[in-house]
Hints:
CATH 3.60.110.10; six-stranded mixed beta sheet; hydrolase; alpha/beta; Aliph_Amidase/BUP; single chain; C-N_Hydrolase_sf
Amino acid sequence: xxxxxxxxxxxxxxxxxxxxxxxxxxxxxxxxxxxxxxxxxxxxxxxxxxxxxxxxxxxxxxxxxxxxxxxxxxxxxxxxxxxxxxxxxxxxxxxxxxxxxxxxxxxxxxxxxxxxxxxxxxxxxxxxxxxxxxxxxxxxxxxxxxxxxxxxxxxxxxxxxxxxxxxxxxxxxxxxxxxxxxxxxxxxxxxxxxxxxxxxxxxxxxxxxxxxxxxxxxxxxxxxxxxxxxxxxxxxxxxxxxxxxxxxxxxxxxxxxxxxxxxxxxxxxxxxxxxxxxxxxxxxxxxxxxxxxxxxxxxxxxxxxxxxxxxxxxxxxxxxxxxxxxxxxxxxxxxxxxxxxxxxxxxxxx
Length: 350
């Protein structure tokens, strides 16, 4: 019949405002199925590295605000930016000034305030990796990811657990290994964690986020082609398989040139950049599948729908957690870190 109502849902969508519709849907159907739409952003810097710090940060704030607006139009629930997104990746220079001036409070700095505004406006959880200045503990610096809830509330922070000392990536000039452990954030859209950059090379780091219950682990990074690109498509994908969660690998793009030359302690001539950030951000699932990568050379927003049911389904199918033997490795590692430890190597004496 022409006058038949197609469905209750269609009627509700047509006549009920969106805010009230969400509550009506919750009452009618209970908890929504755990489908979450994530977004990851890769980008180049927005101003010359010679510009004043305030101008460089403001330019990136403006750029990322526009990209966040695009993510909101796509219906993204959780959005993650790249490592140290508010600045050039100047840690290669080992210069204190002006780069330390980019550091700001994780709890109340201008970048966190911007993210709170955007998160509240778009009902979106935002993961914002910054250079943190901890004024409570002697103005120490940290490589930190700030997590802001979709209500605009500062949820917490996760600091980089593993610091590289590889060529230009000698970041201990600025900050040391983090002290927040393997924190997992329970958001309205799922349990998330942040494994910052170099931590992706350490399987135990990935493992602990899984043990602590993460369903999605973001890996905001800054890495160049001559160093890590062959590993890039493997590590986060392997971590998703081994730990039965989703992983989101994020890298910046472009080549950043600095005012003063620096060396890499490798005998090669001094230089003003240290290579091309190759982008190629992607998302991997616990069943081993993954998305195509974003561009190697251009800014980009990757949007992906994740069915969080898959985390448990893969655990049930493969039993990796059940067969993990953490007791065995806990005992072995406890022994291995002792000064008197001797590896149990059986030698052929014949």
